[in-house]
Amino acid sequence: MVLEIDSAKRRVSLGLKQTMRNPWEVFAEQNPVGTEVEGEVKNITEFGLFIGLDGDIDGMVHLSDLTWEGRGEDVIGDYRKGDMVKAVVTEVDTEKERISLSVKALGGDPFTEATGGVKRGSIITVEVTKIEDGGIEVEYEGMKSFIRRSDLSRDRAEQRPDRFGVGDKVDVRVTNIDAKTRRLGLSIKAREIAEEKEAVEQYGSSDSGASLGDILGAALKGDD
What we know:
By secondary structure, the protein is α+β, with helices and mostly antiparallel strands.
């Protein structure tokens, strides 16, 4: 394509690139968001990986898109220039000539998979993995959570982490699901309060003259 004609200098400027389609537009058409691609690691920076793609263009995998678990800074060291890497296209900006890729999107989000049937208020069983002064660390479907001392029991006297042992199975109530921090908020205290409330509603109220002990006793008999 003729770009410029300079009669004074008797020079004609031609452009080959202008006869070809924008490679980012071609890539976007052939690889819409969600497409799995594979390319060679061309460069590694403090921000992530640059992957060579079809059309002699690069896509970037940001640190935050390298792994679901832990930090990208901790796993980027596992990659080397020349490695062949698979990733999923998450964005193509043809104007800025930028392609965003994600390695972690190749597999399902373990947090979403593990919490798929869990809602706020759900009762789940967790396993105690660590005892600390401020509470206990527990695990559910491979995910770690921490139950604070104040949430260990409705009874202040029982809010002692040392009454639990590593490996114990404990029923807890889900008080929060935070997808951003990938944490479940859990509470034994909230479970006990909910159980007591349910027992009162089902077996009577203290207003009718029944004590809480009588009501809970009736609830326990009803479960036999």
